[in-house]
Amino acid sequence: MSRTRTSDVLVIGGGIIGLVTAWRAAQRGLATAVADPEPGGGAAQVAAGMLAAVTELHYGEQTLLGLNLASARRYPDFAAELTEATGHDLGYRRCGTLAVALDADDRAHLRELHALQQQSGLDSQWLSGRECRRLEPMLAPGVRGGLRVDGDHQIDPRRLAGALVAACERAGVVFHRVWAERLAVAGDRATGAVTADGTALAAGQVVLAAGSLSGRLAGVPRDVLPPVRPVKGQVLRLTMPGRHGPFLSRTVRAVVRGSHVYLVPRENGELVVGATSEELGWDTTVTAGGVYELLRDAHELVPGITELPLTETRAGLRPGSPDNAPLLGPTGLEGLLLATGHHRNGVLLTPVTGDALAHALTTGELPEEARPFTPRRFSTATALTEQPA
Ligand code: GLY
């Protein structure tokens, strides 16, 4: 028998982006529901949680940098508010980051990054190899130089996801622990979604925040379907020794022979090593090759990691977009908004996404800082995207 449940806002997808949207919407007095079989799951269960606006800067992504920095600036208050609302410790560590180079090519790459950071008015400091090792004694003797970025911090994404579920519950968000199978459209507006058992989840506005799955929801008209694709990342978790001072005191990262590798040390002794970046569709297999490459590159940076217990290997799917930036806010279909395509920056962009979507849901418009990320910038691209059967 089909039933109907009604809310002001239905968020499809209960990963950190969907949850922060729902939390912020509920705080603004909107009756909000989330559809997801496992709220708090998704890419955040794999992600390392670097808040790396400065060290992950790339040529051609200066507009995205503005949004990344806006979100990084919000993090201290956001984390404090979420902890206050839930009592959860988020593992938010203002530890900074050291990006290092192992050979002449890596050093040239890092010099270019440093120049770009300086042109962009960002804080980063060039260090010799010796200065890098003074900061992080576990670094390999071969480290040839590095960039010290004291403003790139970290949070534990699993704790963040758990806290957002709790915050949503406390704010009165209703969880439908099922997948929305199809967007409901009546005339020329979105009116909710329908689940596998035929339940109609009616809503005044719908936010599609299903991460890498966002481009697959049935019923979304082709010209507003987000051009989001899965980008696989394999990630390892190890345990650092608790004795003899910190194994690493800050995030350490490098490009080794063209591949990014990073080591994120948590206060609780977990060391996260990531990540591959693979265009393999929906595959989430952990492969011997992926683990080998991460361990090989991480070992070149920090030889002592081979002594540590390897406690977890896992792969997740980043929601990649054509310009590596998110799709935020109203679409060409009345009543349908997007919060997806965050690619490598989902954890960093969580605070600003929640604020931007809450603003859009209550005023119909994105705030100034989020306007460049309107999904309408892809209206031609989406028209070319095939709608899945
Ligand atoms: N931001 C790190 C990653 O996507 O691997």
TrEMBL record:
Where the record annotates domain FAD dependent oxidoreductase, the positions are 8-359
InterPro entries, per this entry? Answer: FAD-dep_OxRdtase, FAD/NAD-bd_sf, Gly_oxidase_ThiO
Residue segments, region Disordered: 368-389
Catalytic activity of the protein:
glycine + O2 + H2O = glyoxylate + H2O2 + NH4(+)
Name the enzyme group at the top EC level. oxidoreductase
State the Gene3D superfamilies in the record.
D-Amino Acid Oxidase, subunit A, domain 2 (3.30.9.10), FAD/NAD(P)-binding domain (3.50.50.60)
**Which pathway does this polypeptide act in?**
Cofactor biosynthesis; thiamine diphosphate biosynthesis
Q: What is this protein called?
A: glycine oxidase
Keywords of this entry: Oxidoreductase, Thiamine biosynthesis
What's its EC? Answer: 1.4.3.19
Ranges of compositional bias, category Polar residues: 377-389
